[in-house]
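Input for the complex:
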Amino acid sequence: MRRNITLIMLFALVLALMTLSANAQDVEKLKFPKLSELKVPEIDRVTMDNGIRLYLLEDKSLPLFHVSVRVNCGSHLEPEDKIGLADICGTVMRTGGTAKWTGDEIDELLEGVGASVETYIGTLSGGARVNVLSEYTDLGLEVLSEVLRRPVFEEDKIELAKVQERSAIARRNDDPQQITFREYRKIIYGANSPYARHSEYATINSITRDDLVAFHKTYFHPQNVQIAVWGDFDKTALLSKIDEFFGDWERTGEPVSKPPKVDYEYQSKVYYIKKTDVNQSNIVMGHIGGLLTDDDYADRIVMNNILGGSFGSRLFNSVRSREGLAYAVFGVYTANIMYPGVFYNYASTKSETTAKTVQEVIKEIKRIQTDPPNDSEMRMGKDGYLNSFVFKFDTKQEVVTRLMNYDFYGLPEDFLFQEKENVEKVTPNNVIAAAKNNLHPDALHILVVGKGEDFDMPLEQLGFGLVDTIDITIPSAEEKKELAITPENLKKGMEVLQKAVEAHGGLENFKKVNSISIKGTYLLSVRGTEIPIAIEWLRVLPDKNKSVMSVMGQKIMQIRNGNSGWKTDQMTMELTAMTEEDIADDKKNWNRSTIHIFASSDNPYYQAVYDGTGKVNEMPVTYMELVDKDDAPLCRLAFNSETYELVGKFYYDETPLGAGTIEETVSNFSQISGVKLPMTTVRFLNDQKMSQTDIAEFIINGEIPPDAFAKPE
Amino acid sequence: MVRSVTHVFVLLVCLSLLYVTTVSGFDFSELENSVTEFTLENGLKIVVLERHEAPVISFVTWANVGAVDDPKGYTGLSHMFEHMAFKGTTTLGTKDIKKERQLIAVEDSVFLELRAERKKGRLADSAKIKALEAAYDEARDASYEYVVPNELGNVVEREGGVGLNAGTGYDLTVYFMNFPSNRLELWMSLESERFLNPVLREMYKERDVVAEERRMRTDSNPFGRLLEEFLAVAFKAHPYGIPVIGHMSDIQNYSRPAARAQFEKYYGPSNLTVAIVGDVKPKDVKKLAEKYWGSLPYRPAPERIATVEPEQLGERRVVLEDPSQPIYLVGWHIPEGTHPDRPALEALVDHLGQGRTSLLYKNLVKEKKIAMQVAAFAGFPGDKYPTLVAAFAMAASGHTNEECETEIFKEVEKLKNELISEEDLDKIKARTKATLINQLDDNQGLALQLAGYQVFWGDWRELFQELDRINAVTAEDVQHVAKKYLTKKNRVVGLINTEES
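Predicted:
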């Protein structure tokens, strides 16, 4: 290939030659023979009667036989509360046995001859890989058909997959780079997006064998399956074998839904994740990327090479070589076919140069919008692509699997050749235009993972506004879903509450309540024993409350009169003053009381938030969460979904028996002065029965002794 | 006439029977016949394997130098030079080599003065240091004015090169890249020039880059942290116990003259081996090699260390309290890669810890579910010198290093007390055959293998003997090496326990 040497280069060449020693070479002088015309090998395409599409490429250079299967299914199809289902399904299809063999038997069969068959399900596609010496082709194909068509999902192997998933969750915060890229995808796509979400203990625990069987059954059928084969085989014999193992696979099932779109808003924001066992920060900044089918895709290829491709790119030159700030640094605007990619700019630098590195990277992102690539950069960015084009076809594997993928996505077979043609046309101005149209240095999400106390500058001072600190603590299995306090849920919550008030006697009757007098039994369950305690309780609104508990001949009293009172010290059995904390506790208790909640429903001291439906003791209920004005939890109420009668009450409390969630279920309703209230309450603490209250006498607005709240003798 | 032809025919048939593949044999002769080797006058060895499947070539330059050759006080220097080999030459990467050379000399002398003053510690003159620091910054900036950054990488990429990279290990430094087949001469020119006229420009900034690499791979990575402690404890005398990337204080101490000296000592052509696999004609390679590589001046073979790691007097153990989840690592001392005991050890680690049917996987992962990942391997961290066989385990959540260790030791005892079955041995051999054949499928991998075997064994043909060596292993051999090497006294353990936050 003749090289065109421009006048400038010739001049430089002459200058260089004048200072050279006799032996030094100059690469610019070299002439290269022309590369022979690229011959893309012919691929045999066959569509079976049941819809399976085959792609065959013979290669007898080595006695190896390879298969790559693509299945149209992915984790984007799994339900939100079972994240990890697709991944586990993909794993256990291979490990969990089939109709013909157990999982362990398959392991022995394959490893006994150095063969491998693996299955997987990713985000947008699933599949399998087979790699065997060609003398074992039949074995490879038979095992492949078994794991794809007839997996039995042995329970033990499901458990094994779950153990491994849980262990991976436990380890997911050990490696700072892993944290960085995982969290960044959530920032760009949204934490709940299938392109970013990840499993948690709770979602793994919820996956059952039925789920796996159903997922496999729904998506693994012939019209979703493509099979690429390359290596040492004879076409006729192979087709016959494939027909034997896959020909009778029945075509069933519905079409697979398309993966969801991405909702993205350009925004400038900084995020920080604290990691203290490091002396280096991991930094990513960028925003959403593009699609393969975008018009300026070819321009972006060249732009990427120049901005942050590799040796000699702008980011490499400045952040790594010139400034010595980082070993690992790159910048790339990625594009996918089905959903947009990400514009990533990454660098890892010692903690003390974190802010400086962020600024250097931003400089380069801005510069590629204004500073056109010079000749040397264009040669690297554009010629580099063109001259290395042959490497897109140098292995049989990439040629045949690429065709399989293009076929699925409906891309033309010569897509890469079209791309090459477009790259050939790219000019420096095109690169600038692509940078201007696609890059937004004023709307970057910047994530820093590292040890903040060692940074050269607090991230707030970078000039991108407030910093969002992301908590990556791994949630425990029992983590409750967050309460959604939305206008819709508040409206609905109020509706539910009003219905409940009506069902229990109506707002007017509740507002008439001025005093409540209760006599009954409190049965305390402690370590298998039940202790009956006689209780007497008198409350006069708004802030007087007297309770007397008689147990084993002893009386334990508490008398609150406004903001002070007395109580029996349970150690000395003597009367002592109520503390501020005691008063506050009583206030809290009153705020949880059904009467007070109902009576205040027209002017509430709380927010009533609708929180879905469920079951309590097999009864369908509607949940309502009460939170105070600062969104702090008060209690959760469960009403019968049809009658709106109170069924249960749940709240967090600290008791002498321990702290935790109290679950109250109520029954045995009575009508008193126009209001309907339960006479029996059973309480559980952390799933253990704690107590039961049975009310024998319940009087509203009765006579109150004059010295009821005076200090007793 | 007919009789003699039949005679010859029968003879040929008999001869061919000698090459018939057994159940676990494979005929590498076709491949071997595609290899050509030659040595230049200056000692440079070149191995070429012709493959015309695709119009591409994979190149590997293997320098017989690694971290074991780092001088005292300059741990990681071999790796540092590997970085320097990307900085260009007298013609590549500079705007004016004459001026640049002068400024580099100034930069070096200021740096050495600064370093000498700093080394005085508390007795140093702080005003002098300040002045020298300012002078150093100025000298460095001045010399960088003449740098064309990363021109080597730039040229390689624009000419269609892919996979440009390099790596340093304990025993080796390898440089590799792949080109379309019409760029053979370009590679010859660039690569030979790199080791003929390297200019170690931007040295002091690159030192910072290496420091970042250390922070990334070791300091800020739990596995890296554990590995460094483990090796330090496993090797008290031999440099396999010193990190390849070097200690941070040594990295900060590098000078250009020191890096240059390392290059002069170890990069003589007789210490370099080139492997080329792909769409080439050996006679073209020879002609171009003589033209370009031939100008490297002969240098005598460098002196090698003679340190032999003494036998351990007792088990060694290092325990890290670390925020990370548990990691467990155990190793036993074994001989170097070319030792006759090694094939049996390879068979042993395959049976012990490679694949779902291995002893460790069946026990710890499948049956007891106490580990999420477990494996065994031999020839770690190097293979030119006596080294280690090792196993590692990542405990499943809720399980401990102790549990994993108990089961690992149980399986090791099995290997010592029981003979592995003939069936299992056949399976090991079948796996080895499949692995070796699969390795032939990748040009770059094959180039690395050819160069490696040429350097370690003195003959690239030994690569193709590997299967025969494994096929000769008996069950008694495996038990014998298990008993000989996998003892408590010979054992090193390193682990990370999760510290209470």
